Amino acid sequence: MQFTTEHEELRRTWRTIIEREINPHVDEWEEAGIFPAHDLFKKLGSAGLLGVDKPVEFGGAGLDFSYAMVCAESLGLVNGGSIPMAVGVQISMATPALARFGSDELRREFLAPSISGDYVACLGVSEVGAGSDVASIKTTARRVGGDYVINGGKMWTTNGTQADWICLLANTGEGDAHRNKSLICVPMQTKGVQVVKKLDKLGMRASDTAQIFFDEVKVPVRNLIGQEGMGFIYQMKQFQEERLWAGAGTLQGCERIINATIEYTRERKAFGRSLLDNQVIHFRLAELKGEVEGLRSLVYRACEDYLAGKDVTMLASMGKLKAGRLRREVSDACLQYWGGAGYLWDNPVGRSFRDGRLGSIGGGADEIMLQIISKLMGTLPKPDGK
């Protein structure tokens, strides 16, 4: 993938923001179990970082998706996964379908303030009984006059306790589970929307994750994104960008942990020499570095194909699968070389170990990625077993 001076300027902007506004506060936010989303997102919005690939008429920069990939990769410089995940929801999960299919009125109301950082957005897809199996969601939105009346619940909703609106996937009809769903913009202050609790997670501690209930929640039909019944299709298209984002977002994070481990093992002495002098350690770190570069090549190739209008379902799924597993592998291997220090709660490698585990679960579990890849390879057994 060829990067221009504009791409590099975007990287520099992210690096400056991260060094000044994010990394100095990460430890404090991790301890608190939440970060000030409105404050930080407003700073990111003012710097033009929340809408690089969104329409100019709604406050975006109107650039192509390669610039969003630079955003994802740059966020790997953050000392933890919480903030990159929260920002990723705002940029690549809650807003792409709205930007692409929403009416101008809807985009003025919800997209523009999300790009400026005045609104925090969240995505309502997963439910207690429907995670990777999106088609099985139970939340409903029935038409009553000029409104939708929504009932149900969403789970694992990133940014959920601080969000101003939710991009909600709900059943708006009967019949085929892939053709009866719609995406709807729902203000979180609407009567009947209840944030039940902030979930206590193993990792991503600074990112608030909520369980949300909807009890007779009434919103205008004009809050529908695109066409009724097309929500599942829109969401699947959105998943491709989300999975490319996940691949790109893993690169700098893995490199950051590898580099920190090189520094630590070079300084740490055992039996009269640096730990890094042990061949088993520097060979393993070299091996991991090669794996990161392999993932980078895959992600960049997938992005180029996506920009060229090609179907990247297989490559995006491979990238997502590889990213989740590699983050786990890098964190686990490096933690071993930190010894007892790596097992401490505030150690950067220990944090990566906790945060990185979500990569093989969220946004489509490894098993779902393998299922998609197998289907496209023609090796997935048919329902009748033949």
TrEMBL record:
Keywords: FAD, Flavoprotein, Oxidoreductase. Residues 122-217 form the Acyl-CoA oxidase/dehydrogenase middle domain. The keyword Oxidoreductase applies. GO terms for biological process: fatty acid beta-oxidation using acyl-CoA dehydrogenase. PROSITE patterns: ACYL_COA_DH_1 (PS00072), ACYL_COA_DH_2 (PS00073). InterPro entries: Acyl-CoA_dehydrogenase (IPR050741), Acyl-CoA_DH_CS (IPR006089), Acyl-CoA_Oxase/DH_mid-dom (IPR006091), Acyl-CoA_Oxase/DH_mid-dom_sf (IPR046373), AcylCo_DH-like_C (IPR036250), AcylCo_DH/oxidase_C (IPR009075), AcylCoA_DH/ox_N (IPR013786), AcylCoA_DH/ox_N_sf (IPR037069). Belongs to the acyl-CoA dehydrogenase family. GO terms for cellular component: cytoplasm. Residues 4-118 form the Acyl-CoA dehydrogenase/oxidase N-terminal domain. The lineage of its organism: Bacteria, Pseudomonadati, Pseudomonadota, Alphaproteobacteria, Hyphomicrobiales. Its cofactor is FAD. Residues 229-375 form the Acyl-CoA dehydrogenase/oxidase C-terminal domain. GO terms for molecular function: acyl-CoA dehydrogenase activity; flavin adenine dinucleotide binding. It comes from the Bacteria. It comes from Vineibacter terrae. This is Acyl-CoA dehydrogenase.
